[in-house]
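The aim of this short unit is practical: by the end, you should be able to scan a pair of folded records and say something sensible about each. We start with the first protein, listed as its amino acid sequence and then its structure tokens.
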Amino acid sequence: MYSTTRRRTGGRTRRLLGLAAAASAAVVLAAGCSGTGGKEDGSGGGAGTDQLTIAMVTHEVPGDSFWDLVRKGAEMAAKKDNVTLRYSSDPEAPNQANLVQAAIDSKVDGIAVTLAKPDAMAPVVKAALAAGIPVSAFNSGYDNWKAMGVQQYFGQDEFIAGQAAGKRLSEEGKRHVLCVIQEQGQVALESRCAGVKESFTSGSFEILNVNSKDMPSVESTMTAKLQQDPSIDAIMTLGAPIAQTAVKSKGNAGSTAEVATFDTNAALVDLIENGDVAWAIDQQPYLQGYLAVDSLWLYLTNGNTIGGGDAVLTGPAFIDQSNIDKVADYAKNGTR
């Protein structure tokens, strides 16, 4: 459970925390954090509450548009709640843990974090909770957040989402599915493919590991695989940028395989509209970022928790040509 120390300390402690945060700002800036959100004078914004500082630390891969949506949701919640948001990220688990530690050292009021590599993140999550800093988890770590003592989680059950994808592929009569994992060992991605494998019953299934930090290599590896094995009739990718690359690889190889994916971005909306990607599973990244910040504000200002001790699911939902027009309108606004 979260410590209630911060809620009971009152205005004097908040002023002291503000001074401590200012004194250690250089540490956070060195870690690559950036701030957005509410007023700095503590006079209360649209939310009518004192200004708070919340750090969001993710395992974002540079250039991944999925995380732009997460950040936009977090920034919208911060603006509404009079919160200064310090956003930072690193795809390497030890570096992400260091960013969380920097947030602890700067005495932020709350921390929102992804748990893609839970073993690496567990010690700093424990340190944050021991320091009386509430932690919300989102996007990754569905199977681990509760054991770490985190009170609220926002995301999807990746295994169940994978099962939904596998079932749909079976219903479509696919005979050979290639599931592409862009970061080997990342628990959410591994769970997605495991779910697909478990529920795909109409043919053979295999995994292809690639490195999303080298997209030209991703394209060439997928192209070579499709040329080598023309029996592959479905490419299941686990992120929108990989799906975009899969479309290129399919063209390079002269393959007729269907491309489907997890997660969306504005470019993927166009690919679904023109039929290059058949469908996508949406976990609503904007909503995840929004809830991760807003839940901390609700807890810090009113003692509220969301979910009753269970994860708050933001997916899965299918996006295909039957509903893409509605999603496209929101994508134009940069929120889907």
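Turning to the second protein, read its sequence before its tokens, just as you did above.
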Amino acid sequence: MVTAMPAASHPPTPVSPWRHLPNAISMLRVLLVAPICWELLHRHWSYALALVAVAGVSDGLDGFLARHYGWQSRLGGMLDAIADKLLLISCFVILAWLGEVPLWLTLIVCGRDLVIASGALFWRLLIGRIDPQPSLLSKACTLMQIVYLLAVLLALAGWPAPRPALFVWLVAALCIGSGLDYALRWSYRAWRIRRAH
């Protein structure tokens, strides 16, 4: 009688101690919001520029690490979104209050985020859990807002830079386009889910 040999068991894949690094970088970006606001309010443009540049680089770094090493998580997605919104809205509001960026553009930027946040809240209340799924259009919108803010701060700090006015209408168009895209896509998904039940 031949006895079957038990299948060899494979040891579990070790969990990297660095898996929380993208979340830590996102938290760093949240913590940078307060000193950035302080420097902006006191018109220390060079210091504000340096901090915003660090925040912008960290935004790309945490996303790269999460995707490249498979360290994505629901918490990480939420922290990344919160960090982006806090940074961008704070900078736009303060610079608009100081008269350095157009008020109407700031209202569009904040209005888009208000629409998205309200939609997420209603989804959570009426349907259930929501997983952040930023579209390419949304990522382009965030990137262009960062580029615009950097151009504004470069100009204010006296560094050679593209004229910020060149980006104003592009930022506005991307904000409106991505806001409509979010509203239509998630409304359609909600309609399909409600219809299925």
